[in-house]
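Fig. S4 source data, part A: sequence.
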Amino acid sequence: MDVVLKVDARLGQRFYIRGAGLEARLAGGVAVTGRPTQLQAVGTVRIVDGVYNGYGQRLQIQRAW
């Protein structure tokens, strides 16, 4: 049997990550396709807002263009 996977994941309004000093809200999405032994992920995930605790400082994450 030949199995091919196609999963399209979109991050909602309340998708948060916390770990290694990072506390942030994420946005975006990822599409995962392929066979179970050869998966490929394509997409964009970005930090909307958050803080990073590192090097003895609490750094606010802001958009900088």
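Fig. S4 source data, part B ends here. The chain is about 0% helix and 70% strand.
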